[in-house]
Amino acid sequence: MAGRLAEIADSFFTPAVNDLVPYEPGKPVEEVQRELGLDRVVKLASNEGPFGPFPEAREAIERCAPELNRYPDGGAYRLRTALAERFDLRFEEVAPGAGSDGLVDCLSQAMLEAGDEIVCGWPSFPSYAIDARKLGAVPRTVELRDGRYDLDAMLDAVGPRTKIVYICLPNNPTGTTNTRAELDAYFERVPEHVLTVLDQAYFEYIDDPDYPDGVEDLNAGRRVVVLRTFSKIYGLAGLRIGYALAPAAVVTAIGKVRRAFDITTPAQEAALASLDSPDELERRRRTNDEGRPELEAILREHALDPVGPALANFLFAEVGDDSRPFFETLLREGVIVRPTHGFGAPDAVRVTVGTPDDHRFLAEALDRVSTFSK
Ligand SMILES: Cc1ncc(COP(=O)(O)O)c(C=O)c1O
Fold it and tell me: Which of 229, 240, 245, 338 has most ligand 1 atoms within 8 Å of CB, for mutation?
């Protein structure tokens, strides 16, 4: 029998932590399957790619297994070197991280004190606000306009204590983006005391001439950090590896707060091995380009109206006042989608692009639950 553990009052924790709502992880697929007695469960909930790591990455992971008694290279030297070369930047301008989420955490730790502010759009990726709150800093969230980041309104929300402005390009959960012209106009106006973080977690999926490449802003001498990740198109979400491209002073600051051995050897090796497979990257981009309209058509056939234009590997649709009943109904049919309460949109779900077979399964599930419509 379990013993009786000591009681720990709230006073043990910081006020900022006491005010936070804990992250609610989804249940593992196997657990959902077992609990609900389902033969098959399709997960379209976390914007992971439907494919595993690149073949070269799998081999690299296997190759490092015998030496996992050793700590990883804390400096991720080879990966940083390869990324610097790829983007024609200096080694000192590349910061690896335990996912781009790990880098949002590092930037927050390095830059925010109690009472400081960050600005981001809303609904959007929750870590910007959560990581600020952990430190007693204040998120100023700015409503989207027509489903997109409203950069003018965000500039109006910048105050003397604003340290970071996050621009999620494309935005999670809506999948929408700002254009190059809008971003240029933003940089004309943003005050000098602000560091702008361009979160481009889905960059590799997008092949649109109007879609901004944050590296151009960096090269233009703008005060900017570009976040990218191996979690999405590269299929390495389970390994936790991403990177920031930034002025050297920002990279140094990230290096001071990042835990020394945060980025595991398999993560570093798999990321490195993934960099030289342009054909596989292109194949995945094309598959996603075909899959997204297919998913959109299925949602529309079932009275759901995704926000657009969406550029990444997911779609966002309102389903009523509270999306949980819709989520739970679909779950019982074997499809996991993402209710977006934590992203500031309790009335909507986000659905990740899957394989054609996943989509068929979703369409059949939606046929069965078609009583739910907007
Ligand atoms: C916009 C955005 N940023 C960052 C992340 C975090 O990605 P990771 O930490 O896996 O690199 C995600 C993941 O969903 C995302 O959608």
Answer: 229
- DSSP states of 18-84 as a string? HTPPPP-PPPPHHHHHHHHT-S--EE-SS---SS-S-HHHHHHHHHHGGGTTSPP-TT-HHHHHHHH
**Model-wide pTM > 0.90:** yes
pLDDT tens for each residue of 278-320: 999 999 999 999 999 999 999 999 999 999 999 999 999 999 8
Residue whose CA is at the smallest distance from ligand 1 atom 15: 201
Convert the pLDDT of each residue in 71-126 to its tens digit. Answer: 999 999 999 999 999 999 999 999 999 999 999 999 999 999 999 999 999 999 99
CA-nearest of 199, 192, 281, 180 to 244 is 199
Q: Name the closest-CA residue to atom 8, ligand 1.
A: 99
Which residue's CA is the nearest one to ligand 1's atom 16? Answer: 172
Ligand 1 atom nearest the C-alpha of 46 is: 14
Superfamily the domain 14-52+279-368 falls into: Aspartate Aminotransferase, domain 1 (3.90.1150.10)
CA of 168 to the centre of ligand 1 (A): 10
User: From ligand 1's centre to the CA of 201, what distance in Å?
Assistant: 6
d(CA 91, CA 78): 10
Per-residue model confidence (pLDDT) at position 1 = 62
> Given pLDDT bands bounded at 50, 70 and 90, which one contains residue 371?
low
Ligand 1 atom at shortest distance from the alpha carbon of 103:
9
Q: CATH 3.90.1150.10 region(s) of the chain?
A: 14-52+279-368
